[in-house]
Amino acid sequence: MARKVFFSFHYDADKWRASQVRNMGALEGNIPCSDNDWESVKRGGDAAIKKWIAGQLSGRSCAVVLVGAETATRKWIIHEIQEAWNANKGVVGIRIHNLKDQQANHATKGSNPFDELTLQNGNKRLSSIVKLYDPPGWASTDVYAQIKSSIAAWVDEAIEIRNSA
To answer: Rounded to the nearest 10 degrees, what angle do helices 11-22 and 140-164 cross at?
Structure first.
């Protein structure tokens, strides 16, 4: 049975790479948001964005953060991670910079977004608990194959980690 997950990623920079992961069929993900839908949500302001994120996370067991070059700097991705963690959902990161985009380009490796959050006690960064996978290889096909063969296990592990934290 496929796990229901929420995919978090920098929409403008990584939607092409994210679509490759989402279309692997290894997981049941949230319904993709079109450019027009996302623009409509953004026009509603912060409250509308928070409501949309909450709705997308509802009924999901894990947030899969697809980490590109700028992911760690994105306000709403950090919010999504925090909301998923606080809702006792599994959280896992997968680096996607070596998947090719629509122009067949790779991206630079971005910072770990889990370094941006500390646990409630303030003594530990979320990155000390949440795993960020960096699929080996530079060839996009090798990275794709590694993600496809491993993503379900990574999600299961993330849920197990959250349940024991």
So the answer is: 90
**CB neighbour class for 82 (10 Å; exposed up to 12, middle 13-18, buried from 19):** middle
CA distance 69 to 88: 27
Q: What is the pLDDT of residues 41-66, one digit of tens each?
A: 889 999 999 999 999 999 999 999 99
Tokens of 151: 């993503």
Whole-number Å distance between alpha carbons of 125 and 142: 31
* DSSP-derived 3-state class of residue 84: helix
- Collapsing DSSP to helix, strand or coil, 133 comes out as strand
The pTM assigned to this predicted structure is 0.92
What's the CATH code, domain 4-164?
Answer: 3.40.50.450
